[in-house]
Amino acid sequence: MTRRKFLYYAAGLSAVGATALYARGMMGGVMGERGMEPSGMGAGMMGSNTLGAVNNFFNPLHIPPEIKGELRGGVRHYDFDIQEGYREFIRGLNTPTYGINGNYLGPTIRLKQGEEVSLNWQNNLGEATTMHGHGMHVPAIMDGGVHQIIEPGTKWSARYKVNQKACTNWYHPHMMGKTAEHVLMGLGGMIFIDDDESLNHPLPKRYGVDDIPLVIQDRSFASDGSFIYNKNMMTVMHGYHGDTLLVNGTVAPYLEVEANLLRLRLLNASNARVYNFAVAGVKNRLIASDNSFLERAESVGSVVLSPAERVEVVVDLRRVFAKKLYLVDRESGAKVLEIRVNKRAQVRSAIPSKLTTLETINLRKVAKKRRFVLETRGPGRLLINRKRMDPKRVDERIKVGEYEIWEVKNAPMGMGMMKMGMTHNFHMHAGHFRVIARDGSKRKVLPWERGYKDTVRLGVGERVTLLVKHSGYIDSQNPYMYHCHILEHEDAGMMGQFTVEDA
Ligand SMILES: [Cu+2]
In which element (H, E) is residue 456 found? Predict the structure, then answer.
């Protein structure tokens, strides 16, 4: 198979050109950062994040197949074929894509807490990649980070015991310097983890009927149907922003549902775009963040999601029969998904008053404090603690079982009152954290940051305080990663490594 090339319009920028773009980008960042929380998280240069308006939703939403694996010798096996293909996103145009067991994105993986599983990834691409379980609590060598490379024509298996609470995770490549392109081409999918508690809840849980995976991405198409991806300095600095929204790979999607409770599992699988989601016209009840349920459902006006963040939201459609509602992005003003309430309720579901019990936050047990500064120090120089990612370097060594405070700051570039820069976020592998404070204030912690989290958004100049404990797998040789999940930033080196070691 030949290796497909993306369209690169600006291959070589002169030093002067790059600096000019860089300066313009910085100013764009200022103008993009309008307003206060939670709506003021503009991602970049004005114009670069414009979404085309869609008012005619004519494609049924694709629901990724759900795979439950196959028991072989006491281990539940899931088999995947990472492949090249074509997808007709736009009628009459074939877009070259990557996909998993299909031509774009992959199946939803259903896991159960306590089970021994083996996720078997066969790479049939013409290039090497990796497959990371985002949000999964697994040994470092099973993480699928930058070190677990799957060469073309070979298979890699992530084998582990599912060891965490019910939640919505996902999987995507994590190849050094190539993650943005591999995700853009279509590699990724959802992971639903069940536990006894979640299975016993009366929540909506009929997959694809009232429990809906929503993988939200933005893409731009060339006239021949191929994805446009200009990896120039502007894209590196601000991240890729497409002009067309895809939900589960569907352009202009509609979904037909019962007049019943509807559970939406929202995943921002975009390279860089930040959304502010709401189902307009009904109450949005937030039930879960990245790695757990919230203890209790909470009503929210909207939910801001930076790349890789997830939430679960339940909306009550029992009194809106024969109506159309919209999932909207209040940041861009775009409609994302048309929800047609045109079926009678077949089951009775409910949101329990107590969803789960989270570990009590006790800061007196904190043994260590670490600081992480995400900073831009020149064109394409996106650093954490003034370092660019080096896969041979371990940046932090963490003692197993110890509570730590991680203070993570998005350092602005400006002087005085002028705060210039760009939105970042911070993702930690191997476990979850609690968001204790934003800019030193508990009250600024957002509703969807009150459950277990693995990714947290950082506006320009913002600082988050995270409570971290790695209780899992000791391995002083094989590191996990932490990084900005704006994929162009990650690929530019805004990433570091840590090990979890014997106390
Ligand atoms: Cu970033």
Answer: strand 455-458
- Please state the rounded mean pLDDT for residues 464-482: 96
Helix, strand and coil in the chain, % to nearest 5:
10, 45, 45
Phi, psi of 210 (to 5 degrees): -130, 10
- For 477, phi then psi, to 5°, come to -95, -35
Residue 295 phi, psi dihedral angles, 5° rounding: -65, -40
Sequence-distant (≥ 6) Cβ neighbours of residue 29 within 8 angstroms: 42, 44, 45, 238, 420, 421, 422, 423, 460
CA terminus-to-terminus distance, the chain? 48
Q: Ligand 1 centroid vs 138 CA: distance in angstroms?
A: 25
Q: Which CATH architecture has domain 363-501?
A: Sandwich (2.60)
Instruction: State in Å: Cα 168 to ligand 1 middle.
Output: 23
Cα 288 to averaged position of ligand 1 atoms, centre (Å) = 24
In contact, 158 and 119? CB cutoff 8 Å: yes
Q: Which tokens is 251 given?
A: 């352009």
Residue 290: its pLDDT value, please?
98
Nearest to 61 by CA among 422, 475, 337: 337
- 29 three-class SS: helix
Q: What are phi and psi of 126, to 5 degrees?
A: -90, 10
- CATH 2.60.40.420 domain span(s) along the chain: 59-196, 363-501
Q: Compute the distance from residue 292 Cα to the ligand 1 centre, in Å.
A: 24
Alpha-carbon distance 120 to 156, whole Å? 6
Specify the DSSP class assigned to residue 1. -
Sign of CA dihedral 154, 160, 162, 167: negative
Residue type (1 letter), 187: L
Q: Work out the pLDDT band at 448, boundaries 50, 70, 90.
A: very high
d(CA 483, ligand 1 centre) in Å: 8
Ligand 1 centroid – CA 330 distance (Å): 22
Residue 12 contacts by C-beta under 8 Å, 6 or more apart in sequence? none
Question: Which fold does the domain 59-196 belong to in CATH?
Answer: Immunoglobulin-like (2.60.40)
- Strands in 92-223 per DSSP E: 93-100, 108-112, 116-123, 132-134, 155-161, 167-172, 189-194, 211-219
Continuous segment of H or E residues that includes residue 204: none
Rounded mean pLDDT, 350-354: 98
Tokens for 270? 């975009």
Question: How sure is the predictor about 416, in pLDDT bands with cuts at 50, 70 and 90?
Answer: low
Amino acid at 226: S
Q: What is the ipTM of this complex?
A: 0.82
Backbone φ, ψ for residue 118 (5° rounding):
-135, 115
